[in-house]
Design a protein that fits this description.
3-stranded antiparallel beta sheet; disordered N terminus; single chain; 9-stranded mixed beta sheet; Rossmann fold; alpha/beta
């Protein structure tokens, strides 16, 4: 029996990561990530802990957390750095925050770091609800849950063409808490490249009628909304000066965030916002069009 092919096959098996293997990137240097939380209309304590866990599990990131707490409020279970933090220590910031305005000096520093391309910015779900009176935040995120007439709306029609609608009805999520298909609209962007053209996301809120300046927005994925009957953006990037911004309205709670599609999207979005490139692979257990895929719930 020739043992050489067998030995080679065994070696290859150890080199190729399986679904539960950390998704190691080509570059060994960890990307420094800052998550901002502390106030929210959702369970930020649970979602921050889960997001930090999944980012660090990839082997690509080192994650700090800073919490802008209400007076007298208790922090989450994750150790934090003081707020406001020193943004120059990080390559990318993730917002899991929906509360009152940040201090003016910190907002100015945040704008400058993102605009100059020194700090990538990623936000998910209701982190887009806040700061309606901060023009540069609205410019950074492109689209947000705003009231009637607060900028333009983007959606895709039945022919797969983007449509821009000025003014009109504001954002919502009513009657949309269900599993839904995510349709990739830009298969060549580093974040979405290699994903199935359509994949099934688990039960989650699907935001619709998001509005904003919608400048320099590149839609990467959409989902058909049963409320509006059109494809609403579910993943997009914004160019803000030299800065890279990524937003997804997915991720209402930890159940939704346990979707392998959401985890992969957030990992790759964070890497791209920080570096402009993506080395993290699409995992073997990424959801297909007809079946959701979740990481196991930890034992209680």
């Amino acid at each position: 029996m020739n043992t050489i092919p067998r030995i080679a096959a065994l070696a290859l098996a150890f080199l190729v990561p399986g679904p539960s293997t950390p998704l190691l990137a080509a570059d060994d240097a960890k990307i420094m990530v800052l998550i901002i939380d502390g106030q929210h209309n959702h369970n930020w304590r649970a979602t921050t802990a889960f997001l930090k866990q999944e980012l660090e599990k990839s082997g690509r990131f080192a994650v700090d957390v800073t919490s802008n707490l209400k007076a007298g409020d208790k922090p989450g279970s994750v150790p934090t750095v003081p707020f406001p933090p020193d943004l120059t220590k990080y390559q990318v910031c993730i917002s899991n925050y929906n509360g009152p305005a940040w201090p003016a000096e910190f907002r100015k520093s945040f704008e400058e770091q993102v605009r100059e391309g020194k700090l990538g910015f990623v936000l998910f779900h209701s982190a887009n609800n806040c700061f309606a009176d901060w023009p540069d935040f609205n410019r950074m995120v492109g689209l947000a849950w705003r009231g009637t007439g607060a900028g333009d709306r983007l959606y895709y029609d039945d022919d797969g063409k983007p449509v821009r609608v000025p003014k009109g009805e504001g954002g919502g999520t009513g009657e949309t808490d269900h599993p839904y298909a995510v349709v990739i609209r830009d298969a060549e962007h580093p974040i979405s490249k290699g994903m199935p053209r359509e994949w099934l996301h688990v039960k989650d809120q699907l935001m619709f009628n998001l509005r904003g300046p919608a400048q320099d927005v590149q839609v990467l994925a959409t989902s058909l909304c049963p409320k509006t009957k059109v494809h609403e953006p579910t993943l997009w990037t914004v160019t803000y000066g030299k800065g890279r911004v990524v937003q997804t309205p997915m991720g209402h709670d930890v159940f939704a965030m346990r979707c392998v599609g959401f985890i992969t999207t957030m990992q790759r979005a964070t890497e791209w916002a920080a570096t402009g490139k993506v080395a993290l692979p699409i995992p073997d257990n990424f959801p297909p069009p007809d079946k959701p895929s979740q990481v196991p719930e930890p034992p209680k």
